[in-house]
Fold each of these.
Amino acid sequence: MAKLVKKADVIVEVIDIRDPISTRSRRLEKIVEAFDKKLLMVLNKADLVPRLVAEKWKRIIEGYGYDVLYVSATKRLGTRILRGTIRWIAESKPFVAVVVGYPKTGKSSIINALRARKGASTSPVPGSPGYTKIHQLYKVEPGFYLIDTPGTIPIEGSWPEAIIRGKSPEELRDPVPPAVALIEKILKYNPKAFEETYRITAKDPYLILEKLAKNRGWIYKKSKEPLIEEAARTIIRDYHKAKIKFFIPPEEFLRKIRH
Ligand SMILES: Nc1nc2c(ncn2[C@@H]2O[C@H](COP(=O)(O)OP(=O)(O)OP(=O)(O)O)[C@@H](O)[C@H]2O)c(=O)[nH]1
Ligand SMILES: [Mg+2]
Protein backbone atom coordinates (compact mmCIF):
# COMPACT_ATOMS: atom_id res chain seq x y z
CA MET A 1 0.00 0.00 0.00
CA ALA A 2 2.82 2.39 0.87
CA LYS A 3 4.47 1.70 -2.49
CA LEU A 4 1.26 2.47 -4.30
CA VAL A 5 0.67 5.66 -2.34
CA LYS A 6 4.20 6.77 -3.13
CA LYS A 7 3.58 6.32 -6.86
CA ALA A 8 0.30 8.21 -6.87
CA ASP A 9 -0.32 11.95 -7.18
CA VAL A 10 -3.77 11.79 -5.61
CA ILE A 11 -5.26 9.17 -3.32
CA VAL A 12 -9.00 8.65 -3.53
CA GLU A 13 -10.26 6.86 -0.42
CA VAL A 14 -13.64 5.23 -0.96
CA ILE A 15 -15.83 4.91 2.13
CA ASP A 16 -19.31 3.38 2.58
CA ILE A 17 -21.55 6.25 3.65
CA ARG A 18 -23.87 3.90 5.54
CA ASP A 19 -21.12 3.49 8.13
CA PRO A 20 -18.25 5.91 7.42
CA ILE A 21 -16.41 5.46 10.68
CA SER A 22 -15.92 1.71 10.40
CA THR A 23 -15.23 1.78 6.67
CA ARG A 24 -12.54 4.44 6.60
CA SER A 25 -8.94 3.45 7.14
CA ARG A 26 -6.97 5.59 9.54
CA ARG A 27 -3.93 3.52 8.69
CA LEU A 28 -4.21 4.39 5.02
CA GLU A 29 -4.75 8.06 5.86
CA LYS A 30 -1.60 8.07 7.98
CA ILE A 31 0.44 6.57 5.15
CA VAL A 32 -0.89 9.25 2.81
CA GLU A 33 -0.01 11.94 5.33
CA ALA A 34 3.45 10.47 5.88
CA PHE A 35 4.20 10.71 2.15
CA ASP A 36 2.66 14.16 2.05
CA LYS A 37 0.26 13.15 -0.72
CA LYS A 38 -3.10 14.63 -1.57
CA LEU A 39 -6.12 12.77 -0.28
CA LEU A 40 -9.73 12.96 -1.38
CA MET A 41 -12.32 11.09 0.64
CA VAL A 42 -15.33 9.84 -1.25
CA LEU A 43 -18.41 8.78 0.67
CA ASN A 44 -20.01 6.32 -1.73
CA LYS A 45 -23.45 4.69 -1.92
CA ALA A 46 -25.07 8.02 -1.08
CA ASP A 47 -28.24 6.84 -2.82
CA LEU A 48 -28.85 4.69 0.25
CA VAL A 49 -29.06 7.51 2.80
CA PRO A 50 -31.08 10.72 3.03
CA ARG A 51 -29.36 13.73 1.51
CA LEU A 52 -29.23 15.52 4.85
CA VAL A 53 -27.37 12.59 6.39
CA ALA A 54 -24.87 12.63 3.52
CA GLU A 55 -24.36 16.37 4.03
CA LYS A 56 -23.80 15.94 7.76
CA TRP A 57 -21.24 13.19 7.33
CA LYS A 58 -19.47 15.28 4.74
CA ARG A 59 -19.27 18.21 7.13
CA ILE A 60 -18.08 16.07 10.04
CA ILE A 61 -15.21 14.63 8.03
CA GLU A 62 -14.38 18.01 6.52
CA GLY A 63 -14.09 19.18 10.09
CA TYR A 64 -11.02 16.94 10.41
CA GLY A 65 -9.41 18.88 7.58
CA TYR A 66 -10.03 16.49 4.69
CA ASP A 67 -11.44 17.09 1.23
CA VAL A 68 -14.69 15.14 1.07
CA LEU A 69 -17.38 14.42 -1.50
CA TYR A 70 -20.37 12.13 -1.42
CA VAL A 71 -21.45 10.29 -4.53
CA SER A 72 -23.43 7.38 -5.79
CA ALA A 73 -21.28 5.48 -8.25
CA THR A 74 -24.06 3.24 -9.49
CA LYS A 75 -26.67 6.00 -9.77
CA ARG A 76 -24.03 8.34 -11.21
CA LEU A 77 -24.75 11.10 -8.72
CA GLY A 78 -21.94 13.49 -8.01
CA THR A 79 -19.56 11.66 -10.32
CA ARG A 80 -19.00 14.63 -12.65
CA ILE A 81 -18.07 16.77 -9.69
CA LEU A 82 -15.82 13.96 -8.51
CA ARG A 83 -14.00 13.88 -11.84
CA GLY A 84 -13.51 17.66 -11.69
CA THR A 85 -12.40 17.59 -8.07
CA ILE A 86 -9.73 14.95 -8.72
CA ARG A 87 -8.44 17.06 -11.61
CA TRP A 88 -8.45 20.14 -9.39
CA ILE A 89 -6.66 18.42 -6.51
CA ALA A 90 -4.04 16.98 -8.88
CA GLU A 91 -3.32 20.53 -10.07
CA SER A 92 -1.45 19.56 -13.22
CA LYS A 93 -1.45 16.83 -15.82
CA PRO A 94 -0.38 14.15 -16.28
CA PHE A 95 -1.34 12.58 -12.97
CA VAL A 96 -2.23 9.24 -11.46
CA ALA A 97 -4.97 8.90 -8.89
CA VAL A 98 -5.15 5.66 -6.99
CA VAL A 99 -8.51 4.50 -5.74
CA VAL A 100 -8.27 2.67 -2.44
CA GLY A 101 -10.60 1.61 0.32
CA TYR A 102 -12.01 -1.36 2.15
CA PRO A 103 -13.42 -4.21 0.11
CA LYS A 104 -16.84 -3.64 -1.42
CA THR A 105 -16.98 0.08 -0.76
CA GLY A 106 -17.44 0.59 -4.51
CA LYS A 107 -13.95 1.42 -5.82
CA SER A 108 -14.43 -0.30 -9.17
CA SER A 109 -17.91 1.18 -9.54
CA ILE A 110 -16.46 4.65 -9.02
CA ILE A 111 -13.84 4.05 -11.69
CA ASN A 112 -16.55 2.85 -14.06
CA ALA A 113 -18.57 5.96 -13.38
CA LEU A 114 -15.58 8.22 -13.95
CA ARG A 115 -14.85 6.53 -17.24
CA ALA A 116 -18.49 6.37 -18.27
CA ARG A 117 -18.08 8.83 -21.09
CA LYS A 118 -15.83 6.40 -22.86
CA GLY A 119 -18.37 3.61 -22.55
CA ALA A 120 -15.46 1.32 -21.85
CA SER A 121 -15.58 -2.18 -20.50
CA THR A 122 -15.90 -2.35 -16.77
CA SER A 123 -14.42 -5.58 -15.56
CA PRO A 124 -10.65 -5.44 -15.15
CA VAL A 125 -10.30 -9.12 -14.37
CA PRO A 126 -12.37 -11.29 -16.69
CA GLY A 127 -13.85 -14.24 -14.93
CA SER A 128 -13.82 -12.78 -11.44
CA PRO A 129 -16.91 -10.65 -11.33
CA GLY A 130 -16.99 -8.13 -8.55
CA TYR A 131 -13.68 -9.03 -6.99
CA THR A 132 -10.82 -6.83 -8.06
CA LYS A 133 -7.66 -8.91 -7.85
CA ILE A 134 -4.96 -6.83 -9.47
CA HIS A 135 -3.93 -3.23 -9.73
CA GLN A 136 -5.29 -1.98 -13.01
CA LEU A 137 -4.51 1.31 -14.71
CA TYR A 138 -7.32 3.17 -16.47
CA LYS A 139 -7.28 6.26 -18.63
CA VAL A 140 -10.10 8.69 -17.97
CA GLU A 141 -8.87 11.27 -20.46
CA PRO A 142 -5.44 12.30 -21.73
CA GLY A 143 -3.21 12.86 -18.72
CA PHE A 144 -5.81 11.62 -16.20
CA TYR A 145 -5.08 8.09 -15.02
CA LEU A 146 -6.73 6.00 -12.34
CA ILE A 147 -5.51 2.87 -10.61
CA ASP A 148 -8.06 0.43 -9.26
CA THR A 149 -6.92 -1.63 -6.31
CA PRO A 150 -8.29 -4.77 -4.74
CA GLY A 151 -9.67 -4.15 -1.28
CA THR A 152 -6.52 -5.26 0.43
CA ILE A 153 -5.88 -2.60 3.00
CA PRO A 154 -5.55 -4.27 6.37
CA ILE A 155 -8.91 -3.96 8.01
CA GLU A 156 -8.78 -2.32 11.38
CA GLY A 157 -10.88 -2.99 14.39
CA SER A 158 -14.53 -3.01 14.37
CA TRP A 159 -16.64 -6.14 14.54
CA PRO A 160 -18.24 -7.37 12.33
CA GLU A 161 -16.86 -5.19 9.51
CA ALA A 162 -13.35 -6.59 9.89
CA ILE A 163 -14.65 -10.13 9.30
CA ILE A 164 -17.19 -9.50 6.58
CA ARG A 165 -14.84 -7.32 4.57
CA GLY A 166 -11.79 -9.47 5.20
CA LYS A 167 -13.09 -12.40 3.16
CA SER A 168 -15.80 -13.07 0.64
CA PRO A 169 -18.92 -14.58 2.25
CA GLU A 170 -18.16 -17.90 0.52
CA GLU A 171 -14.80 -18.11 2.26
CA LEU A 172 -16.09 -17.52 5.78
CA ARG A 173 -15.92 -20.73 7.73
CA ASP A 174 -18.75 -19.74 10.04
CA PRO A 175 -20.70 -16.85 8.54
CA VAL A 176 -23.40 -16.94 11.22
CA PRO A 177 -21.78 -14.94 14.06
CA PRO A 178 -20.70 -12.02 11.86
CA ALA A 179 -24.06 -12.07 10.07
CA VAL A 180 -25.86 -11.97 13.42
CA ALA A 181 -23.75 -9.00 14.53
CA LEU A 182 -24.41 -7.29 11.21
CA ILE A 183 -28.16 -7.90 11.49
CA GLU A 184 -28.15 -6.47 15.02
CA LYS A 185 -26.31 -3.39 13.87
CA ILE A 186 -28.62 -2.83 10.91
CA LEU A 187 -31.78 -3.41 12.98
CA LYS A 188 -30.58 -0.91 15.56
CA TYR A 189 -30.59 1.83 12.95
CA ASN A 190 -33.35 0.59 10.63
CA PRO A 191 -35.82 -1.75 12.34
CA LYS A 192 -37.60 -2.24 9.02
CA ALA A 193 -34.51 -3.12 6.96
CA PHE A 194 -35.26 -6.83 6.65
CA GLU A 195 -38.93 -6.24 6.04
CA GLU A 196 -37.98 -3.87 3.22
CA THR A 197 -35.44 -6.20 1.64
CA TYR A 198 -36.87 -9.68 2.29
CA ARG A 199 -40.40 -9.10 3.65
CA ILE A 200 -39.30 -10.68 6.91
CA THR A 201 -40.88 -9.03 9.93
CA ALA A 202 -39.00 -10.99 12.61
CA LYS A 203 -36.68 -8.94 14.81
CA ASP A 204 -34.46 -11.68 16.22
CA PRO A 205 -31.31 -12.22 14.11
CA TYR A 206 -31.50 -16.02 14.27
CA LEU A 207 -35.17 -15.97 13.38
CA ILE A 208 -34.40 -13.70 10.43
CA LEU A 209 -31.77 -16.16 9.22
CA GLU A 210 -34.17 -19.08 9.66
CA LYS A 211 -37.00 -17.32 7.87
CA LEU A 212 -34.78 -16.32 4.98
CA ALA A 213 -33.46 -19.89 4.64
CA LYS A 214 -36.98 -21.32 4.72
CA ASN A 215 -38.32 -18.76 2.25
CA ARG A 216 -35.56 -19.66 -0.17
CA GLY A 217 -35.96 -23.38 0.38
CA TRP A 218 -32.52 -23.82 1.91
CA ILE A 219 -32.88 -26.75 4.29
CA TYR A 220 -30.69 -29.62 5.40
CA LYS A 221 -31.89 -32.70 3.55
CA LYS A 222 -31.79 -35.03 6.53
CA SER A 223 -32.83 -32.94 9.50
CA LYS A 224 -35.03 -30.49 7.55
CA GLU A 225 -33.48 -27.73 9.64
CA PRO A 226 -33.08 -24.37 7.89
CA LEU A 227 -29.62 -23.84 6.41
CA ILE A 228 -28.90 -20.61 8.24
CA GLU A 229 -25.29 -20.52 7.02
CA GLU A 230 -26.53 -19.91 3.49
CA ALA A 231 -28.91 -17.22 4.73
CA ALA A 232 -26.04 -15.60 6.64
CA ARG A 233 -23.87 -15.51 3.51
CA THR A 234 -26.74 -14.04 1.52
CA ILE A 235 -27.28 -11.23 4.01
CA ILE A 236 -23.57 -10.36 4.05
CA ARG A 237 -23.51 -10.44 0.25
CA ASP A 238 -26.65 -8.31 -0.05
CA TYR A 239 -25.23 -5.84 2.46
CA HIS A 240 -22.13 -5.47 0.29
CA LYS A 241 -24.28 -5.16 -2.80
CA ALA A 242 -26.08 -2.34 -1.03
CA LYS A 243 -29.43 -4.06 -1.07
CA ILE A 244 -29.98 -3.43 2.64
CA LYS A 245 -30.76 0.10 3.65
CA PHE A 246 -29.57 1.57 6.91
CA PHE A 247 -27.21 4.25 8.07
CA ILE A 248 -25.45 5.34 11.22
CA PRO A 249 -26.86 8.74 12.19
CA PRO A 250 -24.11 11.37 12.23
CA GLU A 251 -25.61 12.74 15.46
CA GLU A 252 -24.80 9.50 17.24
CA PHE A 253 -21.17 9.78 16.23
CA LEU A 254 -21.03 13.39 17.40
CA ARG A 255 -22.59 12.46 20.75
CA LYS A 256 -20.03 9.69 21.22
CA ILE A 257 -17.00 11.86 20.59
CA ARG A 258 -18.31 14.51 22.95
CA HIS A 259 -18.51 12.02 25.82
N1 LIG B 1 -26.55 1.33 -4.10
C1 LIG B 1 -25.28 1.45 -4.48
N2 LIG B 1 -24.51 0.36 -4.65
C2 LIG B 1 -23.23 0.52 -5.02
C3 LIG B 1 -22.66 1.81 -5.22
N3 LIG B 1 -21.37 1.64 -5.57
C4 LIG B 1 -21.14 0.31 -5.59
N4 LIG B 1 -22.25 -0.36 -5.26
C5 LIG B 1 -22.40 -1.84 -5.17
O1 LIG B 1 -21.49 -2.31 -4.18
C6 LIG B 1 -20.94 -3.56 -4.57
C7 LIG B 1 -19.43 -3.48 -4.56
O2 LIG B 1 -18.99 -2.59 -5.59
P1 LIG B 1 -17.55 -2.69 -6.27
O3 LIG B 1 -17.41 -1.52 -7.16
O4 LIG B 1 -17.31 -4.04 -6.83
O5 LIG B 1 -16.65 -2.51 -4.96
P2 LIG B 1 -15.08 -2.64 -4.83
O6 LIG B 1 -14.69 -1.72 -3.74
O7 LIG B 1 -14.42 -2.44 -6.17
O8 LIG B 1 -14.95 -4.16 -4.37
P3 LIG B 1 -13.57 -5.03 -4.31
O9 LIG B 1 -12.82 -4.78 -5.58
O10 LIG B 1 -14.04 -6.45 -4.16
O11 LIG B 1 -12.86 -4.55 -3.10
C8 LIG B 1 -21.52 -3.87 -5.96
O12 LIG B 1 -22.61 -4.76 -5.78
C9 LIG B 1 -21.98 -2.51 -6.45
O13 LIG B 1 -23.06 -2.60 -7.36
C10 LIG B 1 -23.50 2.95 -5.02
O14 LIG B 1 -23.12 4.11 -5.16
N5 LIG B 1 -24.79 2.71 -4.64
MG1 LIG C 1 -13.10 -3.64 -7.15
Amino acid sequence: MNDRYRVFFVNALSGFKAAHLVGSRSDDGRDNLAIFTSVVHIGANPPLLGLVSRPNTVPRHTLENIAATGEYTINHVSSDMIAAAHQTSARYPAETSEFEATGLTPRCGERLSAPYVAESRLTIGLEHRQTIDIEPNGTHLVIGEIVEVELDSDTINEDGWIDLAALDSVSAAGLDAYYSPQRLARFSYAKPDRPLRTLD
Ligand SMILES: Cc1cc2nc3c(=O)[nH]c(=O)nc-3n(C[C@H](O)[C@H](O)[C@H](O)COP(=O)(O)O)c2cc1C
Protein backbone atom coordinates (compact mmCIF):
# COMPACT_ATOMS: atom_id res chain seq x y z
CA MET A 1 0.00 0.00 0.00
CA ASN A 2 1.22 3.53 -0.57
CA ASP A 3 1.28 5.69 2.56
CA ARG A 4 -1.84 7.77 1.83
CA TYR A 5 -3.93 4.71 0.94
CA ARG A 6 -2.74 2.93 4.10
CA VAL A 7 -3.69 5.90 6.29
CA PHE A 8 -7.26 6.04 4.90
CA PHE A 9 -7.70 2.27 4.90
CA VAL A 10 -6.38 1.49 8.39
CA ASN A 11 -8.01 4.54 10.01
CA ALA A 12 -11.44 3.33 8.87
CA LEU A 13 -11.03 -0.17 10.31
CA SER A 14 -11.73 0.79 13.93
CA GLY A 15 -15.16 2.08 12.81
CA PHE A 16 -17.10 5.13 13.91
CA LYS A 17 -15.44 7.11 16.68
CA ALA A 18 -16.79 10.11 18.54
CA ALA A 19 -15.34 13.41 17.34
CA HIS A 20 -13.89 15.58 20.10
CA LEU A 21 -12.09 18.89 20.31
CA VAL A 22 -9.25 18.92 22.83
CA GLY A 23 -8.58 22.34 24.34
CA SER A 24 -5.34 23.14 26.10
CA ARG A 25 -3.22 26.15 27.05
CA SER A 26 0.56 26.49 26.89
CA ASP A 27 2.69 27.49 29.86
CA ASP A 28 2.81 31.03 28.49
CA GLY A 29 -0.96 31.29 28.04
CA ARG A 30 -1.56 30.45 24.36
CA ASP A 31 -4.80 28.58 23.63
CA ASN A 32 -4.74 25.44 21.47
CA LEU A 33 -7.55 23.37 20.01
CA ALA A 34 -7.30 20.12 17.99
CA ILE A 35 -9.70 17.44 16.82
CA PHE A 36 -9.17 13.92 18.25
CA THR A 37 -11.22 10.78 17.60
CA SER A 38 -9.19 8.39 19.75
CA VAL A 39 -10.87 9.39 23.03
CA VAL A 40 -11.71 6.26 25.00
CA HIS A 41 -13.42 5.43 28.29
CA ILE A 42 -10.87 3.99 30.75
CA GLY A 43 -13.04 3.70 33.87
CA ALA A 44 -15.84 5.36 35.83
CA ASN A 45 -14.39 5.40 39.36
CA PRO A 46 -12.20 7.39 39.34
CA PRO A 47 -13.64 8.80 36.09
CA LEU A 48 -10.83 8.41 33.53
CA LEU A 49 -10.62 9.10 29.80
CA GLY A 50 -7.74 8.22 27.51
CA LEU A 51 -6.71 9.66 24.17
CA VAL A 52 -4.02 8.54 21.75
CA SER A 53 -1.60 11.18 20.49
CA ARG A 54 0.54 10.73 17.41
CA PRO A 55 4.32 10.45 17.97
CA ASN A 56 6.02 13.69 19.03
CA THR A 57 8.51 13.51 16.14
CA VAL A 58 7.08 16.92 15.09
CA PRO A 59 5.73 19.47 17.61
CA ARG A 60 2.43 18.19 19.07
CA HIS A 61 0.94 21.17 20.83
CA THR A 62 -1.83 19.30 22.65
CA LEU A 63 0.64 16.74 24.01
CA GLU A 64 3.16 19.44 25.01
CA ASN A 65 0.52 21.61 26.72
CA ILE A 66 -0.92 18.70 28.70
CA ALA A 67 2.58 17.72 29.86
CA ALA A 68 3.36 21.36 30.81
CA THR A 69 0.13 22.35 32.59
CA GLY A 70 -1.53 19.05 33.52
CA GLU A 71 -4.93 20.34 32.34
CA TYR A 72 -7.08 20.00 29.22
CA THR A 73 -10.68 19.92 28.05
CA ILE A 74 -12.61 17.52 25.82
CA ASN A 75 -15.53 19.07 23.94
CA HIS A 76 -18.17 17.21 21.94
CA VAL A 77 -18.68 18.27 18.32
CA SER A 78 -22.21 18.84 16.97
CA SER A 79 -23.16 18.88 13.30
CA ASP A 80 -23.09 22.67 12.99
CA MET A 81 -19.42 22.64 14.10
CA ILE A 82 -17.91 19.97 11.85
CA ALA A 83 -16.14 22.21 9.32
CA ALA A 84 -14.50 24.32 12.02
CA ALA A 85 -13.66 21.20 14.05
CA HIS A 86 -12.04 19.56 11.01
CA GLN A 87 -10.03 22.70 10.26
CA THR A 88 -8.38 22.48 13.72
CA SER A 89 -6.43 19.47 12.38
CA ALA A 90 -4.36 21.81 10.17
CA ARG A 91 -0.83 22.19 11.47
CA TYR A 92 -0.93 25.80 12.70
CA PRO A 93 2.16 27.34 14.32
CA ALA A 94 2.14 27.39 18.13
CA GLU A 95 1.54 31.18 18.11
CA THR A 96 -1.78 30.73 16.27
CA SER A 97 -4.87 29.89 18.32
CA GLU A 98 -7.10 27.45 16.42
CA PHE A 99 -10.03 29.26 18.08
CA GLU A 100 -9.16 32.42 16.15
CA ALA A 101 -8.29 30.48 13.00
CA THR A 102 -11.60 28.57 12.89
CA GLY A 103 -14.08 30.99 14.50
CA LEU A 104 -14.84 28.72 17.47
CA THR A 105 -15.18 30.55 20.79
CA PRO A 106 -13.03 29.85 23.88
CA ARG A 107 -14.87 29.70 27.21
CA CYS A 108 -13.25 29.77 30.67
CA GLY A 109 -14.31 27.09 33.15
CA GLU A 110 -14.50 27.28 36.94
CA ARG A 111 -11.58 25.03 37.85
CA LEU A 112 -9.16 24.83 34.95
CA SER A 113 -7.15 27.31 32.91
CA ALA A 114 -7.49 25.20 29.73
CA PRO A 115 -10.16 26.63 27.38
CA TYR A 116 -13.52 25.02 26.66
CA VAL A 117 -15.37 25.40 23.35
CA ALA A 118 -18.41 27.66 23.94
CA GLU A 119 -20.33 26.15 20.99
CA SER A 120 -19.97 22.61 22.36
CA ARG A 121 -23.06 21.14 24.07
CA LEU A 122 -21.09 18.73 26.29
CA THR A 123 -17.74 19.79 27.74
CA ILE A 124 -15.39 17.89 30.03
CA GLY A 125 -12.50 19.25 32.11
CA LEU A 126 -9.61 16.92 32.91
CA GLU A 127 -6.46 16.77 34.98
CA HIS A 128 -3.61 14.71 33.56
CA ARG A 129 -2.82 11.52 35.47
CA GLN A 130 -0.49 9.41 33.31
CA THR A 131 0.99 9.10 29.83
CA ILE A 132 1.87 5.65 28.55
CA ASP A 133 4.32 5.46 25.63
CA ILE A 134 3.21 2.86 23.11
CA GLU A 135 6.37 1.09 22.09
CA PRO A 136 5.49 -0.41 18.66
CA ASN A 137 4.77 2.94 16.96
CA GLY A 138 5.84 5.77 19.29
CA THR A 139 2.30 7.01 19.99
CA HIS A 140 1.20 8.05 23.49
CA LEU A 141 -1.86 7.11 25.54
CA VAL A 142 -2.71 10.19 27.60
CA ILE A 143 -4.94 9.46 30.60
CA GLY A 144 -6.83 12.17 32.46
CA GLU A 145 -9.28 12.33 35.34
CA ILE A 146 -12.57 14.16 34.77
CA VAL A 147 -12.95 17.06 37.21
CA GLU A 148 -15.91 18.92 35.72
CA VAL A 149 -18.65 18.33 33.12
CA GLU A 150 -21.19 20.74 31.64
CA LEU A 151 -24.16 19.78 29.46
CA ASP A 152 -27.83 20.64 28.92
CA SER A 153 -29.59 19.20 31.98
CA ASP A 154 -32.57 17.99 29.92
CA THR A 155 -30.31 15.53 28.08
CA ILE A 156 -29.51 13.44 31.22
CA ASN A 157 -31.89 10.71 32.39
CA GLU A 158 -32.66 10.11 36.08
CA ASP A 159 -30.32 7.08 35.94
CA GLY A 160 -27.34 9.13 34.65
CA TRP A 161 -27.63 8.07 31.02
CA ILE A 162 -26.84 10.90 28.60
CA ASP A 163 -28.78 11.20 25.32
CA LEU A 164 -25.89 11.89 22.94
CA ALA A 165 -28.25 11.94 19.95
CA ALA A 166 -30.27 14.77 21.55
CA LEU A 167 -26.96 16.61 22.00
CA ASP A 168 -26.21 15.96 18.30
CA SER A 169 -22.71 14.68 19.21
CA VAL A 170 -21.22 13.55 15.90
CA SER A 171 -18.91 10.67 15.01
CA ALA A 172 -16.11 10.47 12.48
CA ALA A 173 -14.85 7.61 10.37
CA GLY A 174 -11.34 7.57 9.02
CA LEU A 175 -9.82 11.03 9.04
CA ASP A 176 -12.26 13.05 6.99
CA ALA A 177 -15.91 11.85 7.14
CA TYR A 178 -18.47 12.87 9.77
CA TYR A 179 -21.78 11.22 10.73
CA SER A 180 -24.88 12.20 12.74
CA PRO A 181 -25.99 10.05 15.70
CA GLN A 182 -29.16 7.97 15.47
CA ARG A 183 -30.29 5.76 18.35
CA LEU A 184 -31.56 2.31 17.37
CA ALA A 185 -32.37 0.99 20.87
CA ARG A 186 -31.45 1.20 24.52
CA PHE A 187 -31.48 -2.12 26.42
CA SER A 188 -31.68 -3.21 30.08
CA TYR A 189 -28.52 -4.65 31.74
CA ALA A 190 -27.92 -8.07 30.15
CA LYS A 191 -28.15 -11.08 32.47
CA PRO A 192 -27.91 -14.75 31.44
CA ASP A 193 -31.30 -15.69 32.93
CA ARG A 194 -33.41 -12.65 32.01
CA PRO A 195 -34.84 -11.44 28.69
CA LEU A 196 -33.78 -7.98 27.58
CA ARG A 197 -36.15 -5.07 27.93
CA THR A 198 -35.92 -1.96 25.76
CA LEU A 199 -35.62 1.29 27.68
CA ASP A 200 -36.85 4.76 26.74
C1 LIG B 1 -11.05 13.31 12.12
C2 LIG B 1 -9.66 13.49 12.72
C3 LIG B 1 -9.30 12.78 13.86
C4 LIG B 1 -8.04 12.91 14.45
N1 LIG B 1 -7.75 12.19 15.57
C5 LIG B 1 -6.50 12.30 16.11
C6 LIG B 1 -6.16 11.52 17.26
O1 LIG B 1 -6.96 10.79 17.81
N2 LIG B 1 -4.88 11.66 17.74
C7 LIG B 1 -3.97 12.51 17.18
O2 LIG B 1 -2.83 12.58 17.65
N3 LIG B 1 -4.29 13.27 16.11
C8 LIG B 1 -5.52 13.19 15.57
N4 LIG B 1 -5.85 13.94 14.48
C9 LIG B 1 -4.85 14.88 13.97
C10 LIG B 1 -4.77 16.16 14.80
O3 LIG B 1 -6.03 16.83 14.81
C11 LIG B 1 -3.67 17.08 14.18
O4 LIG B 1 -2.43 16.41 14.22
C12 LIG B 1 -3.57 18.43 14.86
O5 LIG B 1 -2.76 19.26 14.06
C13 LIG B 1 -2.94 18.34 16.24
O6 LIG B 1 -2.83 19.64 16.71
P1 LIG B 1 -1.85 20.08 17.89
O7 LIG B 1 -0.43 19.98 17.39
O8 LIG B 1 -2.29 21.52 18.12
O9 LIG B 1 -2.11 19.18 19.04
C14 LIG B 1 -7.09 13.81 13.88
C15 LIG B 1 -7.45 14.54 12.73
C16 LIG B 1 -8.72 14.39 12.16
C17 LIG B 1 -9.08 15.19 10.93
